[in-house]
Amino acid sequence: MDVIRVVIVDDQPLVRAGFRMVLASQPDIDVVGEAEDGAQALRLLADTKADVVVMDIRMPIMDGVEATRQLCGTNTDGPRVLVLTTFDTDADAFAALQAGASGFLLKNVPPEELLAAIRVVAGGEAVVAPRITRRLLDRFAGQLTAPREADALVNPLTDREQEVLLLVAQGLSNAEIAERLFVADTTVKTHVGRILTKLGLRDRVQAVVLAYETGLIRPGL
Q: Tag placement on the chain: N or C end, fewer CB within 10 Å?
């Protein structure tokens, strides 16, 4: 059984202790380090191999958004980041997705959901459901950076892959896309995989962000 190496980043010692207790109970998860702010996390991860970083947003010295940006950047082989947020009050969650996070959770998430999310992220997928991602993007669309040139970015995609990208950005699951296009689920999964590879993206959350940034899709459509 492959063991998932996790680093916990949070400025509250009790929160870190609680997460460690939950994670340590699982035979396939190993907490390999803790940090109390983003800067400390970056120093730790320079010498510690991790698969998933459970990242708080609001921390002193360096917040979770900037730490996520520096961790992810153009490095698709680095650890994946699972951001913790209050969702309703913390708009920085969207900035974290732009920075490269693979998803987010509420801080009061039940233990079983946290464990499931860590496993999903470690497996290379996003932990936010497509429809939740769409609602988050619609809500915080005003924080988007200036639109990027769409044609140049999506030019490597075939017409079918561009069509699939648009449907992913609209919040459709693979099964829903398959039904819409009259193809098999496995075909859609293959298309999504090729889209991510060609565009240098980590997961479908980043694909949705890209679609918004390029203007391929606009909030509310």
A: N
Q: Which of 16, 88, 78 is nearest to 51 (CA)?
A: 78
Give, in order, the Cα–Cα distances in Å from 97 to each of 69, 144, 183, 205. 9, 11, 30, 7
The residue type found at 46 is A
190: three-class secondary structure by DSSP: helix
For residue 81, what are the β-bridge partners? 53
pLDDT value for 220: 54
Q: What percent of the chain has pLDDT over 70?
A: 82
Of 101, 206, 93, 210, the closest CA to residue 147 belongs to 210
* Lookup: tokens for 107: 């801080």
Rg (CA), the chain: 17
For 34, the token pair is 């803790």
User: Rounded distance, CA 81 to CA 79, Å?
Assistant: 6
Find, among 96, 48, 90, 102, the residue nearest to 70 by Cα. 96
Closest by Cα among 107, 92, 84 to 140: 92
Residue whose pair of structure tokens reads 């936010």 in the numeric block: 128
The C-alpha atoms of residue 199 and residue 20 are separated, in whole angstroms, by 35
Whether 9 and 67 have beta carbons less than 8 Å apart is answered as yes
Reported as a pLDDT band with limits 50, 70 and 90, residue 214 is: confident
